Structure formats: C-alpha cells, structure tokens
Amino acid sequence: MTEQHPTDHSWPNLPVEEWTDTIEALHLWTQVAGKIRLGYSPWLNHSWGVPLYVSTRGLRTSLIPYASEAVELEFDFIDSALRIESTTGAARTVPLQAQSVAQFYEAVIEAMRDIGMPVTINPMPSELPNAIRFDADTVARDYNPAHAAALWRALLQSDRVMTRFRAGYKGKASPVHFFWGSFDLATTRFSGRTAPPHPGGIPNFADDVAQEAYSHEVTSIGFWPGNRESPEPIFYSYAYPTPDGFSEASIEPAAAFWLDALGEFALPYSAVLTADDPDEVLNSFFETTHAAAADLAQWDRVGLECDHPDGPTWWHDRRRNRR
Known about the structure:
Layout: H1 20-40, E1 53-54, E2 58-60, E3 64-66, E4 69-76, E5 81-86, E6 91-95, E7 99-100, H2 101-114, E8 140-141, H3 145-166, E9 177-179, E10 184-194, H4 207-213, E11 216-224, E12 234-240, E13 257-259, E14 264-268, H5 269-273, H6 278-296, H7 301-304, H8 314-322
Antiparallel strand pairs: 1-2, 2-4, 3-4, 4-5, 5-6, 7-8, 9-10, 10-11, 11-12, 12-14, 13-14
Helix pairs in contact: 1-2
C-alpha cells in the first residue's frame, strides 16, 4: 500500500493490493446504470450522453428522460446504496453489498419497474473481453465499502484538477465524465480538424461508435484505477491520431513514462499522492503532454487555449510559491 504524503491529506491512499474485487464489481454494476442512461437519453456526439459524473456522494447519471418525466441513478459510496429517484417522487434503493452481478441487475430492473419506469437494456457488458451477460453472471462478488469510498475520493480530487485543466481551453472540449465501459474519468480537447477513421476492434464495442468518438483530432487526459492484470492506478494522456515524435516528447514530471502498448503517457497515482504539491504535479502532466501533442500536430493553440479563471499565472504562481 502506498504511503500517504504527510503534508497533504486530500488525495486518498488507495488500497491497491486489496481492492480489485470491489473495483471489478463496480465496473459491472456501473454498466447496468450506464446502459439505462444510454438507452433512454438522446444520443450526444462522441458518446457524451453515456457517461456518469462524480457527485457529492459517488457517481451519478444526471437526469434521464422517461416519457414526460425523468429519473436519476446515483451510486452512493457513503451509504453503500444505488439511489434511484424520479421526478414523480417515487424512489428506490438497491444495496451495494457482496452479491452477484445477476442479483444486482435484477434488483435494479425491479426497482425501475416499481417506480413506474420499466426499462429494457442490452445485458452484455461493454468494452470487456470474455464478457458474461449481466443476468447470467451468477458468481458471488465481494464488495468493500471502504474501497469504494477510496475510489470515490480519488475521483473527486481528480475531477477537481481535471475541471480546472479543462477551463484553460476555449475550443471544443468534453465535460469531465466517467466512462463506465472503460471505467475511467476523462476529459478531451478537440482541434476542430477531422481525423482518420479509428480502426475499432475494442471488445464488445461497436466499431462505428469508436469511429464517431474519434472522428476529429483530440488530446485526452484521464484517471484509471487499474484492474486485476494491471493493478497500478494511473493518470494518462494520449492524442488521436498520435503525432509523429509524441512518444519522445519532453514532458513533466519525471515520474511519467510512455506506454508503447497503449500509445499514451502514464503517470502513477502514487507519484501524485506522494508529491509536495499533488495538484501541481498532476497539472504539469496534463499541461505538458497536451502541449507536446498539440505542437507536434500543429494545432492553433493561440486560438484554442485560454487563461484559467483564476488568472493567467495561476499555475505558475503555485509553482513559484512552492519554491
């Protein structure tokens, strides 16, 4: 387990060696809620109508239209429950506890029916190899509320820094949102120019959806909590298409490295956690990797980027005051 830096307690210590079971369960449970949002919300460009959002208690869908009413689902990691609340006043909760995916799926479908909003969704998990239908996944899953809360606290801090990073761009940029398929928090900047067709090939993910998501040039940054095969949580940064020379670009901080298999830069969560100024270290990773990709691809950075709302020297002032 990574040690918490003694001077900063906002970034949580993550129980990386113990939390994989909970992460795997949440990956599949969030897909159930996410597919309700997907199936009953208008399609927005680049799948922007699909993700979840970090909330005051966990992760939420935002309003999902249902006829003339609406519903919202929220994973409450404080009280360990999925809250389902509708504009009619009807509400239900589904406990977050040790259970199978099939049990959770059936409970959510029943709760939606109980509030007068029956739904039908595709029960096949997305973006996972060797996936098992929700209703056929009867293996018991462990769930530790403390591990879910740690994930939420990490998402909360990541969302805060990523939102400020997004504010430094006046071109087209996505919200900071949580993709339940890939199970990561991300925000994306667009150059405004079209991109070559994406090759697709993502497990249980339609090629035409991937091609629409990457129809234009982007840089994207995010946080991924890891999985059983790669348990180290990381922040990442990539560009599509990847400009020539990007992998050799000079970036910050020194702990960041290039992942050739994924075609992206990565920064271990532990490097942020143990830094004297975690926000500064993470922001430097986002800023320098975006700048490297945008310069190599000859983006109109003057026309697309802008000052942070705190003023043009916010980040530099933080660095100077730390010296």
